[in-house]
Amino acid sequence: MVGRAPKSYLIMHSRRGTLKKNFDTNGRWLLWLYARKRRIELIAALLLVVVQVSLGILLARQLGKIVDVGLMADKASFTQVFYLLALLWLSSDLAIFVRQVLARRIAEIVTHNLREKVSLHISHVSIPSLELKHSGDYISRLSNDIQAIRYMVASEIPSLIQGLLGFVAALVVLGTVSWKVTLLTVSVAPVMVVIASILGKAMGTSLKEWQGDMAVINALAQDATSGIVVTKAYNLQNHLERRFYLAGERAVNRAVKLAFVKGQLNSAMLVLSVMPFLILFGVGGFEVISGKLSLGQLLMMLNLLNNLTWPLQGMAQNFANIKAALQAADRIFEILTFPTERTGGITRFAYEDVEYAVEFDQVSFTYQTQEAVL
After folding, report:
1. Residue ranges of the domains in the chain?
2. Confidence grade of residue 133 (pLDDT, cut at 50, 70, 90)
3. By the 8 A CB rule, do 107 and 150 touch?
């Protein structure tokens, strides 16, 4: 008896090792589609960032004013300014608390929905597509990559927006007090931006490579635990141990490289962030001596200077972490492009109309001797 199998069926099942990855989707856009479902909370969190920056500027002005009033020994004015300063401080703390709660709530909901969506999709992915990645790689994406996205939404993006808004607001206020001192103080800013951009890019690349190494380690750990019976049966303990050791060495070397880049970035930003304060102390001190600035104004400028140096110092770290999180989003959304199994029932082949690729001759099969099946 001759049996025939359609060529299209054989091709579909024999190319699972060469199935091409078709991933043209922008993970950033897809992540925004998930986040915009919480747009009311997003808008509220953004408004609270604006409120927080505004209160910070007012606090700096009131702090300088209370020094000038104290030097004038005006008790009534000092009491009034003190109460206003305390009210602004409490309001700022309340805005920070509510903003952090909203941001973390959004991050938890978005990552929960994303993890649930990806997990559900994996359960329906076709076997040929599913076997293109190791199960440990999927675990890494659903744990490490999701964690990177959660941290980005909860902390990195709000911090970056706050820093940028604070930088612009502080620059404007400082310019109204003394544009000459402000210009000299921020002269180091372009150098900080260039260094932050270069080292931040290198840090993002190293972080992405480290995430890939951790995915390999997770895959090997999955093999060692779930396949321990097979490993012992074929005496593969030494082989897996060697592979795990090499993967661990690569991950450690990558982590050391990442730590070196982080150290360069942090030390460079720390040194450069001190320079504006030295310039302000020097030039501003002469302005106070000459009577062009009051002591309170100098103190206010010192406080506002934190809004200039801190964003430049933390901006590189924010951008690097955000870049790594967006790359993690690409890895996660790549899973959603994997084709799923058909759910529409049985597809019947018209075998007589399809060119066959395999022919079975003189082959028979039966469940019972008196009834032939093939």
Report:
1. 27-346
2. confident
3. yes
